[in-house]
Amino acid sequence: MTERDDRELRDRFQALRREDAGGAPPFGATLARARARGAGTWLPRWTVWLAAAVVAVVVVLVGARVLFTNGRQGGLIDLAAVRWEAPTDFLLALPGEELLRAVPELGRSPHFSWRTP
Amino acid sequence: MSPDLFELELDRWHAAAFGWALACCAGDRAAAEDALQATYLKVLDGRARFDGRASFRTWLFAVVRRTAAEERRRAAWRRLLPLAALGVRADGKPDPAALLARSETTQRLAAALARLSSRQREVLHLVFYEDLTIAEAAAVVGVSLGTARTHYERGKAALRQLLGEDGT
Question: The complex's ipTM?
Fold first, then answer.
Protein backbone atom coordinates (compact mmCIF):
# COMPACT_ATOMS: atom_id res chain seq x y z
CA MET A 1 0.00 0.00 0.00
CA THR A 2 1.56 3.26 -1.12
CA GLU A 3 1.17 6.81 0.16
CA ARG A 4 -0.76 7.62 -3.00
CA ASP A 5 -3.22 4.80 -2.34
CA ASP A 6 -3.74 6.06 1.20
CA ARG A 7 -4.33 9.59 -0.05
CA GLU A 8 -6.82 8.32 -2.60
CA LEU A 9 -8.72 6.39 0.07
CA ARG A 10 -8.67 9.43 2.36
CA ASP A 11 -10.09 11.59 -0.43
CA ARG A 12 -12.93 9.14 -0.97
CA PHE A 13 -13.73 9.07 2.74
CA GLN A 14 -13.59 12.85 2.93
CA ALA A 15 -16.07 13.09 0.03
CA LEU A 16 -18.35 10.73 1.96
CA ARG A 17 -17.89 12.88 5.06
CA ARG A 18 -18.85 16.07 3.21
CA GLU A 19 -22.01 14.43 1.89
CA ASP A 20 -22.93 13.09 5.35
CA ALA A 21 -22.28 16.47 6.98
CA GLY A 22 -24.89 18.05 4.72
CA GLY A 23 -27.52 15.69 6.07
CA ALA A 24 -26.61 15.98 9.74
CA PRO A 25 -29.48 17.18 11.96
CA PRO A 26 -28.86 20.50 13.76
CA PHE A 27 -27.16 20.11 17.14
CA GLY A 28 -29.85 22.11 18.99
CA ALA A 29 -32.67 19.94 17.63
CA THR A 30 -30.83 16.72 18.50
CA LEU A 31 -30.13 17.94 22.02
CA ALA A 32 -33.76 19.05 22.50
CA ARG A 33 -35.04 15.65 21.35
CA ALA A 34 -32.57 13.92 23.63
CA ARG A 35 -33.79 15.98 26.60
CA ALA A 36 -37.45 15.34 25.74
CA ARG A 37 -36.70 11.66 25.43
CA GLY A 38 -34.96 11.66 28.81
CA ALA A 39 -37.76 13.53 30.53
CA GLY A 40 -40.30 11.06 29.24
CA THR A 41 -38.68 7.71 29.67
CA TRP A 42 -35.62 7.67 31.85
CA LEU A 43 -36.07 6.41 35.39
CA PRO A 44 -33.64 6.96 38.26
CA ARG A 45 -31.23 4.11 38.78
CA TRP A 46 -32.72 3.21 42.17
CA THR A 47 -36.11 2.47 40.60
CA VAL A 48 -34.47 -0.16 38.40
CA TRP A 49 -32.90 -1.81 41.45
CA LEU A 50 -36.22 -1.62 43.31
CA ALA A 51 -38.05 -3.25 40.41
CA ALA A 52 -35.38 -5.98 40.24
CA ALA A 53 -35.72 -6.59 44.01
CA VAL A 54 -39.53 -6.81 43.78
CA VAL A 55 -39.27 -9.29 40.90
CA ALA A 56 -36.75 -11.38 42.89
CA VAL A 57 -39.02 -11.47 45.97
CA VAL A 58 -42.03 -12.46 43.86
CA VAL A 59 -40.03 -15.23 42.15
CA VAL A 60 -38.85 -16.58 45.53
CA LEU A 61 -42.38 -16.50 47.00
CA VAL A 62 -43.95 -18.17 43.98
CA GLY A 63 -41.15 -20.75 43.86
CA ALA A 64 -41.52 -21.55 47.56
CA ARG A 65 -45.28 -21.88 47.23
CA VAL A 66 -45.02 -24.20 44.25
CA LEU A 67 -42.37 -26.28 46.02
CA PHE A 68 -44.33 -26.68 49.27
CA THR A 69 -47.65 -27.26 47.56
CA ASN A 70 -46.17 -30.05 45.45
CA GLY A 71 -44.66 -31.65 48.56
CA ARG A 72 -47.97 -31.71 50.39
CA GLN A 73 -49.82 -33.18 47.46
CA GLY A 74 -47.25 -35.94 47.17
CA GLY A 75 -47.88 -37.06 50.77
CA LEU A 76 -51.66 -37.26 50.57
CA ILE A 77 -53.37 -40.32 49.11
CA ASP A 78 -57.06 -40.31 48.59
CA LEU A 79 -58.54 -43.42 50.28
CA ALA A 80 -61.36 -43.57 47.78
CA ALA A 81 -58.81 -44.30 45.09
CA VAL A 82 -57.22 -47.11 47.12
CA ARG A 83 -60.48 -48.85 47.88
CA TRP A 84 -61.90 -48.55 44.44
CA GLU A 85 -62.84 -51.82 42.76
CA ALA A 86 -63.43 -52.34 39.11
CA PRO A 87 -66.78 -53.88 38.06
CA THR A 88 -64.88 -56.77 36.45
CA ASP A 89 -62.77 -57.61 39.50
CA PHE A 90 -64.94 -60.71 40.17
CA LEU A 91 -63.53 -62.33 37.02
CA LEU A 92 -60.15 -62.48 38.70
CA ALA A 93 -61.48 -64.42 41.72
CA LEU A 94 -60.79 -68.16 41.26
CA PRO A 95 -61.89 -71.17 43.29
CA GLY A 96 -59.25 -72.38 45.72
CA GLU A 97 -57.34 -69.14 45.82
CA GLU A 98 -57.48 -69.24 49.65
CA LEU A 99 -54.68 -71.84 49.43
CA LEU A 100 -52.40 -69.11 48.16
CA ARG A 101 -53.25 -66.69 50.97
CA ALA A 102 -53.43 -69.02 54.00
CA VAL A 103 -50.43 -70.21 55.97
CA PRO A 104 -50.35 -74.05 55.94
CA GLU A 105 -50.45 -75.76 59.37
CA LEU A 106 -49.49 -79.31 60.31
CA GLY A 107 -52.41 -81.56 61.28
CA ARG A 108 -55.00 -79.25 59.92
CA SER A 109 -56.54 -79.57 56.49
CA PRO A 110 -57.18 -76.36 54.72
CA HIS A 111 -60.81 -75.36 54.50
CA PHE A 112 -61.81 -73.78 51.31
CA SER A 113 -64.56 -73.84 48.78
CA TRP A 114 -64.16 -75.14 45.27
CA ARG A 115 -67.08 -73.08 44.11
CA THR A 116 -66.62 -70.01 42.11
CA PRO A 117 -67.03 -67.04 44.44
CA MET B 1 -16.55 18.97 33.40
CA SER B 2 -19.64 21.16 33.84
CA PRO B 3 -22.85 20.54 31.83
CA ASP B 4 -22.25 23.76 29.85
CA LEU B 5 -18.79 22.61 28.86
CA PHE B 6 -20.18 19.21 27.88
CA GLU B 7 -22.72 20.93 25.65
CA LEU B 8 -20.02 23.02 24.02
CA GLU B 9 -17.89 19.95 23.35
CA LEU B 10 -20.88 18.00 22.02
CA ASP B 11 -21.72 20.89 19.70
CA ARG B 12 -18.12 21.00 18.50
CA TRP B 13 -18.05 17.34 17.57
CA HIS B 14 -21.70 17.00 16.55
CA ALA B 15 -21.20 16.60 12.78
CA ALA B 16 -18.36 14.11 13.28
CA ALA B 17 -20.38 12.19 15.87
CA PHE B 18 -23.31 12.00 13.45
CA GLY B 19 -21.04 10.61 10.73
CA TRP B 20 -19.71 8.03 13.17
CA ALA B 21 -23.25 7.17 14.34
CA LEU B 22 -24.23 6.67 10.68
CA ALA B 23 -21.31 4.28 10.26
CA CYS B 24 -22.28 2.40 13.45
CA CYS B 25 -25.87 2.09 12.19
CA ALA B 26 -24.94 0.87 8.68
CA GLY B 27 -26.12 4.09 7.06
CA ASP B 28 -29.57 4.08 8.67
CA ARG B 29 -30.20 7.77 9.30
CA ALA B 30 -33.14 7.31 11.70
CA ALA B 31 -31.16 4.80 13.77
CA ALA B 32 -28.14 7.12 13.77
CA GLU B 33 -30.25 10.03 15.05
CA ASP B 34 -31.73 7.78 17.75
CA ALA B 35 -28.28 6.61 18.81
CA LEU B 36 -26.95 10.17 18.89
CA GLN B 37 -29.87 11.40 21.01
CA ALA B 38 -29.42 8.50 23.42
CA THR B 39 -25.69 9.27 23.58
CA TYR B 40 -26.25 12.96 24.38
CA LEU B 41 -28.75 11.98 27.04
CA LYS B 42 -26.24 9.60 28.61
CA VAL B 43 -23.54 12.26 28.57
CA LEU B 44 -25.74 14.98 30.05
CA ASP B 45 -27.38 12.92 32.79
CA GLY B 46 -24.06 11.39 33.85
CA ARG B 47 -24.67 7.77 32.86
CA ALA B 48 -21.62 8.08 30.62
CA ARG B 49 -18.76 9.62 32.59
CA PHE B 50 -15.79 11.29 31.01
CA ASP B 51 -12.74 10.49 33.14
CA GLY B 52 -10.21 12.35 31.00
CA ARG B 53 -8.11 9.27 30.18
CA ALA B 54 -8.72 9.79 26.46
CA SER B 55 -9.59 12.91 24.47
CA PHE B 56 -13.24 13.99 24.59
CA ARG B 57 -13.75 13.02 20.96
CA THR B 58 -12.34 9.50 21.43
CA TRP B 59 -14.50 9.00 24.53
CA LEU B 60 -17.61 10.41 22.79
CA PHE B 61 -17.11 8.11 19.80
CA ALA B 62 -16.78 5.11 22.13
CA VAL B 63 -20.07 6.08 23.82
CA VAL B 64 -21.75 6.52 20.41
CA ARG B 65 -20.52 3.08 19.34
CA ARG B 66 -21.76 1.38 22.52
CA THR B 67 -25.09 3.21 22.43
CA ALA B 68 -25.65 2.36 18.77
CA ALA B 69 -25.08 -1.31 19.61
CA GLU B 70 -27.58 -1.06 22.49
CA GLU B 71 -30.13 0.65 20.24
CA ARG B 72 -29.60 -2.05 17.61
CA ARG B 73 -30.29 -4.78 20.18
CA ARG B 74 -33.37 -2.92 21.39
CA ALA B 75 -34.63 -2.52 17.81
CA ALA B 76 -34.12 -6.26 17.23
CA TRP B 77 -36.26 -7.03 20.29
CA ARG B 78 -38.90 -4.55 19.14
CA ARG B 79 -39.07 -6.24 15.75
CA LEU B 80 -39.82 -9.53 17.51
CA LEU B 81 -42.76 -8.03 19.37
CA PRO B 82 -46.12 -7.65 17.61
CA LEU B 83 -46.33 -4.03 18.80
CA ALA B 84 -43.43 -3.16 16.50
CA ALA B 85 -45.83 -2.84 13.57
CA LEU B 86 -47.60 0.07 15.30
CA GLY B 87 -44.67 2.48 15.24
CA VAL B 88 -42.19 3.56 12.59
CA ARG B 89 -38.83 2.38 13.82
CA ALA B 90 -35.32 2.23 12.52
CA ASP B 91 -34.87 -0.91 10.43
CA GLY B 92 -31.09 -1.04 10.37
CA LYS B 93 -30.92 -0.45 6.62
CA PRO B 94 -29.46 2.52 4.77
CA ASP B 95 -31.88 5.34 4.16
CA PRO B 96 -32.95 5.10 0.46
CA ALA B 97 -33.22 8.88 0.08
CA ALA B 98 -29.73 9.35 1.51
CA LEU B 99 -28.38 6.69 -0.84
CA LEU B 100 -29.88 8.46 -3.85
CA ALA B 101 -28.37 11.76 -2.76
CA ARG B 102 -24.87 10.27 -2.73
CA SER B 103 -22.53 10.60 -5.62
CA GLU B 104 -21.53 7.52 -7.57
CA THR B 105 -18.04 7.53 -6.05
CA THR B 106 -19.26 7.57 -2.47
CA GLN B 107 -21.93 4.98 -3.27
CA ARG B 108 -19.15 2.68 -4.49
CA LEU B 109 -17.13 3.35 -1.36
CA ALA B 110 -20.15 2.66 0.88
CA ALA B 111 -20.88 -0.57 -1.01
CA ALA B 112 -17.26 -1.70 -0.70
CA LEU B 113 -17.18 -0.82 3.03
CA ALA B 114 -20.33 -2.86 3.57
CA ARG B 115 -18.43 -5.95 2.40
CA LEU B 116 -15.65 -5.58 4.97
CA SER B 117 -15.80 -7.01 8.48
CA SER B 118 -17.34 -4.65 11.02
CA ARG B 119 -14.00 -4.11 12.83
CA GLN B 120 -12.15 -3.32 9.61
CA ARG B 121 -14.92 -0.95 8.58
CA GLU B 122 -14.88 0.78 11.97
CA VAL B 123 -11.12 1.24 12.07
CA LEU B 124 -10.94 2.52 8.48
CA HIS B 125 -13.82 4.90 9.07
CA LEU B 126 -12.25 6.30 12.23
CA VAL B 127 -8.87 6.80 10.57
CA PHE B 128 -9.84 8.05 7.12
CA TYR B 129 -13.20 9.69 7.76
CA GLU B 130 -12.74 11.00 11.30
CA ASP B 131 -8.97 11.61 11.05
CA LEU B 132 -8.21 9.67 14.22
CA THR B 133 -4.88 7.96 14.75
CA ILE B 134 -4.84 4.15 14.81
CA ALA B 135 -4.24 4.31 18.58
CA GLU B 136 -7.32 6.51 19.04
CA ALA B 137 -9.35 4.20 16.78
CA ALA B 138 -8.21 1.26 18.92
CA ALA B 139 -9.47 3.06 22.05
CA VAL B 140 -12.85 3.78 20.44
CA VAL B 141 -13.35 0.22 19.22
CA GLY B 142 -11.96 -1.25 22.45
CA VAL B 143 -9.14 -3.35 20.99
CA SER B 144 -5.38 -3.30 21.41
CA LEU B 145 -3.22 -1.13 19.18
CA GLY B 146 -1.77 -4.19 17.44
CA THR B 147 -5.23 -5.57 16.69
CA ALA B 148 -6.39 -2.20 15.36
CA ARG B 149 -3.30 -1.97 13.17
CA THR B 150 -4.02 -5.43 11.74
CA HIS B 151 -7.64 -4.47 11.00
CA TYR B 152 -6.39 -1.24 9.43
CA GLU B 153 -3.88 -2.90 7.10
CA ARG B 154 -6.12 -5.82 6.11
CA GLY B 155 -9.14 -3.57 5.74
CA LYS B 156 -7.22 -1.16 3.56
CA ALA B 157 -5.98 -3.96 1.30
CA ALA B 158 -9.46 -5.46 1.03
CA LEU B 159 -11.01 -2.08 0.31
CA ARG B 160 -8.47 -1.30 -2.39
CA GLN B 161 -9.18 -4.68 -3.97
CA LEU B 162 -12.95 -4.19 -3.81
CA LEU B 163 -12.72 -0.70 -5.29
CA GLY B 164 -10.36 -2.02 -7.97
CA GLU B 165 -12.75 -4.84 -8.87
CA ASP B 166 -15.41 -2.18 -9.21
CA GLY B 167 -13.36 -0.52 -11.92
CA THR B 168 -12.68 2.74 -10.11
Answer: 0.77
